[in-house]
Specification:
Layout (H helix, E strand, L loop, with lengths): L5 E5 L3 H13 L3 E5 L2 H10 L4 E5 L7 H11 L4 E6 L4 H9 L4 E4 L7 H24 L14 H14 L5 E4 L6 H10 L9 E4 L8 H6 L16 H4 L4 E5 L9 H10 L1 E2 L8 E2 L3 E6 L3 H6 L5 H7 L2 E4 L10 H15 L6 E2 L1 H9 L5 H15 L4 E2 L2 H8 L14 H19 L4 H7 L4 H10 L12
Parallel strand pairs: 1-2, 1-3, 3-4, 4-5, 6-11, 6-12, 7-8, 8-11, 13-14
Antiparallel strand pairs: 9-10
Helix pairs in contact: 2-3, 6-7, 10-12, 13-15, 14-16, 15-16, 17-18, 18-19
Length: 461
């Protein structure tokens, strides 16, 4: 529970104001009510508040004007708007201006306490994420992305060209190749960079809630929908929506996204009102969408709309020149996160990295560096602890096992393959099994047959 937050209620309706303040105090909150925006700003200038419950429709200085000042001058204060006019225009505008949530005035105030506690928890998490985002902002400039290789230089040149436009972008790349990072770079170098990019990973969404996640839902649209739900397309209004793993979008929902790409309109689940927002779409996939189209697994018309400006991110094995730069940046950030003194990579360690093919790309490089920093005590990292079994293999042929009988070679390949998966998954068996397209039980049996334990690959062990 959020401990004893100071709450300011702003509403020109005296009865509503007194009722809300009374409910809040009865629930143990410290609360104060004022009837105007001017009064609210005077208090904010002299007292600390964690939360403001703000009516939008007030005479004189209205709620939008107050919200604009709070968002600009007091970004650490969470704002929940109070409104009797629950329309898309009102809510979308308030959310776009910095409000974190909204409460309909006809809702019973008995639910204020849990709503406030949950909202403050989410807001505090959002604050932490924003601070981290500001800290890492410079990392998303194109010049900070490793581009020593000609392959990556071509990719970044395309990204720079398209960044300033609102053209839909489709990023192609293997798992862990940096699609999210490139999407962030495109957004941060676009005309929409003043707003946070909204991220959606289709593969991680609950299949039963994907439609409401994207398009929102009206109250009562499905079991458990006790209030109107604002979807990703509304939250991303004026910004960029990054849709990762677009190839996993169910066929029955693809026409809805196609419609949005055509005219920026959609309807909430359970609603009949046509809504319109201004959102730029960047999508990404590690699948061959053209092949999926040929197999009727992905709509051809949606593919055509998404594929206006395709950008391929080369896998790490095709841009080995980038490994030293990437490794240096990852070493610096990982040492800081692990609270270690700054360390470096030895020449032999770098040779090991360059000679490895990285089937899981940058994500695996990050995992290997973190594990090596934990396992090795020397100031210069050699990666012997995590790549020794691969170091003797020829470059670009890490799993090639020669001079062995077929059965032995097969067993050696299988063990190395499982090790690679566990390294990339940081010892998470379920994640590793998913990457191998195996069920968890069978994958764990394979691990046991090779004498491998998840703990060997988990950070800190």
């Amino acid at each position: 529970m959020i401990q004893d937050p100071q709450i300011l209620v702003v509403d020109d309706d005296q009865d509503t104001l007194e009722q809300i303040v009374r409910y809040l105090k009865d629930d143990g909150f410290r609360a104060l009510g004022v009837p105007s925006g001017h009064d609210a700003l005077k208090l904010l200038a002299n007292q600390e508040y964690r939360l403001v419950l703000l009516d939008l429709m007030m005479p004189g200085m209205n709620g939008y004007e107050v919200l604009d000042v709070i968002h600009r001058d007091y970004p650490e204060i969470c704002v929940i708007v109070l409104t009797a006019h629950v329309t898309s225009e009102y809510i979308s505008r308030a959310l776009q201006m910095g409000a974190f949530d909204f409460i309909e005035k006809h809702e019973t105030f008995e639910y204020l306490k849990p709503r406030i506690e949950i909202t403050l928890q989410k807001f505090n998490l959002s604050l932490e994420q924003n601070l981290q985002r500001e800290k890492d902002h410079n990392e998303f400039h194109f010049d900070t992305l490793s581009n020593s290789s000609s392959a990556m230089q071509k990719t970044l040149e395309l990204a720079k060209r398209v960044a300033k436009s609102d053209t839909t972008v489709l990023l192609y790349g293997e798992t862990g190749s940096g699609k999210n990072r490139l999407a962030q770079a495109i957004h941060h170098n676009s005309l929409r960079s003043d707003r946070n990019m909204v991220v959606a990973n289709v593969a991680q969404m609950n299949p039963n809630l994907i439609e409401s996640d994207f398009f929102g839902a009206e109250r009562g649209a499905y079991s458990g929908a006790v209030k109107r739900r604002i979807g990703l397309l509304e939250r991303a209004n004026g910004s960029t929506l990054f849709i990762d793993e677009i190839g996993e979008l169910p066929l029955d929902l693809q026409p809805n996204l196609l419609r949005f790409l055509q005219d920026q309109t959609f309807e909430r689940l359970g609603g009949d009102k046509v809504l319109k927002t201004d959102v730029r779409i960047i999508a990404a996939t590690n699948r061959d969408l053209e092949e999926m189209v040929s197999k009727n697994q992905f709509r051809r018309d949606l593919f055509s709309r998404l594929n206006i400006f395709p950008i391929r991110i080369p896998p790490l094995r095709e841009r080995k020149e980038d490994i030293p730069g990437l490794a240096s940046v990852i070493m610096k950030t990982t040492c800081a996160r692990l609270k270690q003194e700054r360390r470096s990579i030895s020449k032999k360690g770098m040779d090991r990295l360059i000679s490895y093919s990285f089937p899981y790309n940058i994500r695996e490089l990050e995992a290997l560096i973190e594990r090596a920093l934990i396992l090795e005590d020397e100031e210069q990292i050699t990666f012997k602890s995590v790549l020794n079994h691969k170091a003797s293999l020829p470059p670009d042929a890490d799993h090639l096992v020669t001079r062995l009988a077929f059965r032995e070679a097969k067993k050696a390949f299988e063990r190395s393959y499982i090790q690679d998966l566990l390294v990339a998954a940081k010892g998470n068996i379920s994640h590793a099994a998913q990457m191998a397209d195996m069920d968890r039980k069978n994958f764990k049996q394979k691990m046991q047959s090779h004498g491998l334990r998840a703990e060997q690959f988990q950070p800190g062990t």
